[in-house]
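pinging the channel bc i need a second pair of eyes. not urgent but kinda urgent?? the chain im working w is below, pasted from the shared doc
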Amino acid sequence: MYKSRAYLPRAAKSLNPDPSRKSRKLCTEEQLFLSFAKTIPEDEDVTSDLPKFVVFDHDMPPADYMVKCIQDNECPDVIVTVNGRMFPCHRLVLSIYSKRMLKLLAGDVNNIVFEKEDLTPKAFSDAYQWMISTRGELNTSDMVDILRAAYFLDIPELLEACWITLDSPVIDELSAFRIMYEARAATNMPEVFDKLAGRLNRATLPAASTREFLSISEVQICSILKSSTLAVNSEMELLYCALMWLSHCWPQRRSSTNVVLKHIRFGYLPPTMLSKFKTKERNQVGHFGEILEEFSKSPDINQLVRDGLFDSSLIIAVYNDPNVVEENVEFKQVKLTDPRCWIRDHRCEYHRNVTTLCPNMRYVTPDQFEKYLMFLSRSRLEYPDYEIEEESDSDWEKKREIKKLMLLKSVVGMDADLDRQINLIKQKRSDRNQDPKTQIVQA
């Protein structure tokens, strides 16, 4: 029978040759290749300094792609319903900016409903557009809606942006009153009302001559009366403004009498007016007699009138003889209420020269004040003149243009030379003032 030897043992035997066997000599070609191989230098490890991971560039960075998806409202994961209007939004954006939404979106919540007057659909839309916008710009015409949404949703960054806008030259005196009037239905913004009231200044009396002034809320009229920057001829004007506001919806506003009138600074009222709060002469104050009758029932009225009579007498005495303060130690210990921003308007019938400390202490009748307000309402809302600083219209317009130019540079990043632009404005205004034709038109 034919037998064959296995392949593996034969191979194993060939791999383990006999050590006594002599190795054959290398052929000439093999010897040359071995010599050549020894001459080749060893290669260095070129991969030693390379990173372990290879980075591939994106056509669009992931962050930019995510922002684009959010701004295009792709793949929203939560629905916010505001007074019946639905808004598809992104949970991540709402949770980052709004502290209130962060609490409401905790857990597996994908539908939130708001049915309150403090948040309107437009207010939520404006606030969400600010969240997803690249530059986060605010439109001053929508400031009321944005403020209401920022307070309701508790968005600190948006509130800070609103405060910066309110402090900027974009919001002037009349714009501050316009924002206050548009926000009269808001109940959660007392700090904003105090800020806007401080911006009224020379627009106080022109604003009081409008119908919109009678429609502002109780919180807003109190914020106005608390301000020390109101530019008025006398404290009597602010008293009549408060009485006009109360009389507009009387007796519905009867409960607001003490709340509003306690902010009047009685120390700057003339003694003639103070005496009418506790005597039968209050019926001689026109149609405001019933309001003063209601105010006389206040338990604090006696102390207010008593302190007011003392302070007003002291102010009049100091104005007539300033040495009275140095001669009486008691007067030095008296701390008067902060004065208003007293002005002198030559067009006012009860006008008199005033100082920083001593206002117009003359008694003003309701007819005189109503006549003055009627004059202001029919005029083109010109500002009354200051005693110390009186600016012409050209100077005022020039400063406004310069402020707008500086604001444009800070916001938009204008590259033009600011000094050159300001010099052009100054030169333009100077040429206009020197032009006789312009002076004739202005006259």
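so The first helix runs from residue 7 to 15. and The chain has three domains: 63-150, 171-378, 393-442. — does that match what u expected or am i reading it wrong
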